[in-house]
UniProtKB/TrEMBL annotation, chain A:
<feature type="transmembrane region" description="Helical">
    <location>
        <begin position="286"/>
        <end position="302"/>
    </location>
</feature>
<keyword id="KW-1133">Transmembrane helix</keyword>
<dbReference type="InterPro" id="IPR001851">
    <property type="entry name" value="ABC_transp_permease"/>
</dbReference>
<feature type="transmembrane region" description="Helical">
    <location>
        <begin position="152"/>
        <end position="171"/>
    </location>
</feature>
<dbReference type="Pfam" id="PF02653">
    <property type="entry name" value="BPD_transp_2"/>
</dbReference>
<keyword id="KW-0472">Membrane</keyword>
<dbReference type="GO" id="GO:0022857">
    <property type="term" value="F:transmembrane transporter activity"/>
</dbReference>
<protein>
    <submittedName>
        <fullName>Simple sugar transport system permease protein</fullName>
    </submittedName>
</protein>
<feature type="transmembrane region" description="Helical">
    <location>
        <begin position="36"/>
        <end position="56"/>
    </location>
</feature>
UniProtKB/TrEMBL annotation, chain B:
<keyword id="KW-0762">Sugar transport</keyword>
<feature type="transmembrane region" description="Helical">
    <location>
        <begin position="61"/>
        <end position="79"/>
    </location>
</feature>
<protein>
    <submittedName>
        <fullName>Simple sugar transport system permease protein</fullName>
    </submittedName>
</protein>
<feature type="transmembrane region" description="Helical">
    <location>
        <begin position="288"/>
        <end position="310"/>
    </location>
</feature>
<keyword id="KW-1133">Transmembrane helix</keyword>
<dbReference type="GO" id="GO:0022857">
    <property type="term" value="F:transmembrane transporter activity"/>
</dbReference>
<feature type="transmembrane region" description="Helical">
    <location>
        <begin position="195"/>
        <end position="213"/>
    </location>
</feature>
<dbReference type="InterPro" id="IPR001851">
    <property type="entry name" value="ABC_transp_permease"/>
</dbReference>
<keyword id="KW-0472">Membrane</keyword>
């Protein structure tokens, strides 16, 4: 039972970045822009979040307060970086996949360059630990307390709140409806007076904000508050895209998909602690490949009748109406 | 003269060329700005090294151009069909592994050993390119996601297989051991450079792809599918078969690139190139994307863009003499790709601007005549 608690406690901080970034991808793609730059946006957000933590870590500020402020910094950074994608993909009507790839390549190189010049290292190392041993009162609840309120990070709760907000914005507001219309049939949306360019900018910007936060939460919950230009976010941005496709571009299905992937990854990295898997004596690398292989298997079964937004990937051209 | 310029301006190849030039120019300007911010005093000398340094290392420029020429072909060839082969890294790593395996484990006559290694690398890459092709053609899985996943799977798999093989891997040095001399490619004999005959094979491969694309039915179908897959399906072209075939050929190119990189002769006798399994995805695969985009996906264009990218990479290494980190080149390359994504559009805008300026001049000349007519 302790192993089970351990696995769940370690799954959640991994699932939250995947969830947030996949939600970001959902906003962008449902508005009609393929956002393959999520990997780069995550790393960009993580870098600035950690840079902020690095500068304030010696002050007397409250640890969780630093985390919240770092989150805002990361969100701003992600938002600004995503503007480069909107500029190219919406205003300049460039190929969205190529632009995204360029943005993905730029961040690790820029981080390595900056870190080597300023810190003489490959990234930013902070000495803050955002780990929460137990949440007062709530951790006393039997079973649930142990599962969700011990040995965790507050990123988990922020992530859930952001999921609920995203779902409400997406389904219950005029904005959400218009955004989705732009991804399905932008010309029809335009004909009833919706500004398609603005909605696509909004979709990509939301993905930038969520991607930046997701990246910072990855640095907090998975990397112990550090960022590194070499390993980056280890393909989490791409995994998030797979999570989004697996979750059929819908918020709550994305949550389930994110939990599934995070659980597989957690198992892969804690083989030594799971007696019956450890006894099998399989090379650990196989488990490390597991999330990627599982992605392929899942996509093979779900892609045949894909629910992808119809207009995604096609730059909107008013003249073609 | 004027007619000639107008004609040239209208040709497609020319506008692609000027578009690439514009993107490169913007990328270099950006690089110069960053260098100035980083260390203003040396920026001019450093930038000069970056631009010109490659000319002093011509052998190395050709040597480092070979693998990215191959990965560039892998990306560009698939691009002609509208497929984005972001998995060149994985195919490259697989090709490298297959070549290494044959190099170490097979005992063959000296004269053919390296040739068999190269072929093995090609097969390895082809195999790794085939998978995303099959996923795309039969199961409708987006090839971008598949090839990214197979980049990671391939990288972990190769690292594990190499680490588990005592003949190939020296664990105390965390790298592969030296390849036998018979497995290394014949050198061209330029001092202090590993440049070898693989550059000629690579250029030949580019020329073959050029012929395939422009002179064969398969190439025609491939391009037609890239332009409009519904129209080509309506015309009776077998889209599924072509997707799988294209990805296999693209993978083979990247695999050859991996083989060329690892089988290159070393400048120090008795040693060879080695591979360190450090769980990092091969950068040459991503540089191939840059090369393909700059070369406008045309095999001939890719030859020149590979040489250009290799040239500024060498220059970037030399710029470290002035305290600049070589990562500056990765930044410049990323910026070049970003701009090349909409360079065609910018190109058209600049073209229109020039046209407008010219026509303004002309209309100004005519204008004085008009009032007289009215009067």
């Amino acid at each position: 039972m302790d192993t089970f608690y351990y696995l769940i406690q370690n799954t959640l901080p991994v699932a939250i970045p995947l969830l947030l970034v996949a939600l970001g991808g959902m906003f962008s793609e449902r508005s009609g822009v393929i956002n393959i730059a999520l990997e780069g946006i995550m790393l960009f957000g993580a870098f600035f979040g950690c840079l902020f933590v690095y500068f304030v870590q010696s002050t007397s500020m409250d640890t969780q307060g630093i985390l919240l402020l770092g989150m805002l910094v990361a969100a701003t950074a992600g938002f600004l970086y995503s503007l480069l994608l909107s500029l190219a993909a919406v205003t300049m009507k460039a190929d969205q996949t190529i632009t995204g790839t360029a943005l993905n390549m730029l961040v690790p190189a820029a981080i390595l360059l900056f870190s080597k010049m300023s810190f003489n290292s490959d990234g930013i190392t902070t000495n803050k630990n955002f780990y929460v041993k137990e949440v007062p009162a709530l951790s006393e609840i039997p079973v649930l307390g142990k599962l969700f309120f011990q040995n965790t990070y507050i990123t988990v709760y922020i992530g859930i709140v952001l999921l609920v907000i995203s779902a409400i914005v997406f389904y219950k507001t005029k904005f959400g409806l218009r955004l989705r219309a732009c991804g399905e049939h932008p010309h029809a949306a335009d004909s009833v007076g919706i500004n398609v360019y603005f909605m696509r900018y909004a979709g990509v910007s939301l993905s930038g904000i969520l991607g930046g936060i997701g990246g910072f939460f990855y640095a907090v919950g998975v990397m112990n508050g550090n960022t590194n230009g070499h390993t980056g976010v280890a393909g989490f941005g791409f995994l998030a895209l797979a999570v989004m496709i697996f979750g059929q571009w819908k918020p709550f299905k994305i949550l389930l998909a994110a939990l599934f992937f995070a659980f597989l990854r957690t198992v892969a990295y804690s083989i030594a602690l799971i007696p019956f898997l450890d006894a099998l004596n399989i090379n650990q690398t196989y488990y490390k490949m597991l999330p990627y292989v599982a992605t392929m298997v899942v996509l093979a079964f779900t892609s045949k009748k894909s629910r992808a937004p119809k207009a995604e990937g096609i730059p909107y051209d008013k003249g073609l109406r | 003269m004027q007619v000639n310029i107008k004609k040239a301006g209208k040709s497609k190849g020319f506008s692609a060329f000027t578009a690439a030039l514009l993107a490169v120019l913007l990328g270099l300007v950006f690089g110069y700005i960053i260098m100035t911010i980083a260390s203003p005093a040396n920026s001019f000398l450093g930038f000069q090294k970056l631009l010109m340094g490659g000319f002093k290392r011509i052998g190395d420029v050709f040597y480092y151009a070979t693998p990215i020429l191959m990965t560039g072909l892998a990306v560009g060839f698939a691009f002609k069909m509208g497929l984005f082969n972001i998995g060149a890294s994985g195919q490259y790593t697989m090709g490298m592994f297959f070549a290494l395996y044959v190099g170490f484990m097979w005992k063959l006559p000296d004269s053919v050993h390296w040739l068999v290694c190269v072929l093995a690398g090609m097969i390895g890459g082809m195999f790794w390119g085939l998978i995303p092709g099959i996923f795309k053609a039969l199961l409708n899985v987006n090839e971008v996601i598949t090839s990214i996943m197979f980049n990671y799977i391939g990288m972990y798999l190769v690292d594990m297989l190499i680490q588990g093989n005592a003949t190939m891997y020296i664990s105390s040095k965390t790298r592969t051991s030296y390849l036998p001399a018979s497995a290394q490619m014949p050198s061209l004999g330029i001092t202090n450079s590993s440049v070898n005959i693989s550059i000629f094979i690579a250029i030949t491969a580019a020329l073959i792809l050029f012929v395939v694309l422009n002179k064969t039915t398969f190439g025609y179908e491939l391009k037609a599918t890239g332009f409009n897959k519904y129209a080509s399906a309506y015309a009776g072209m077998n889209g599924k078969r072509n997707i799988i075939l294209t990805m296999a050929i693209a993978g083979a190119m990247a695999g050859l690139g991996g083989a060329f990189a690892i089988l290159a002769p070393s400048t120090i006798a008795g040693s060879s190139m080695t591979y360190e399994p450090v769980s990092v995805i091969a950068a040459n695969g991503f540089n191939g994307i840059a090369v393909a985009l700059l070369g406008n996906s045309s095999p001939i264009g890719i030859i020149f863009s590979a040489l250009f990218v290799s040239h500024i990479q060498r220059g970037g290494t030399l710029a470290s003499l002035y305290g600049y980190k070589p990562e500056i080149i990765d930044v410049v390359i990323a910026v070049i790709i970003y701009f090349s994504a909409f360079a065609m559009l910018m190109n058209a805008m600049v073209g229109n601007l020039i046209k407008k300026l010219f026509s303004k001049n002309q209309s100004e000349k005519i204008l004085p005549a008009d009032p007289k007519e009215e009067a």
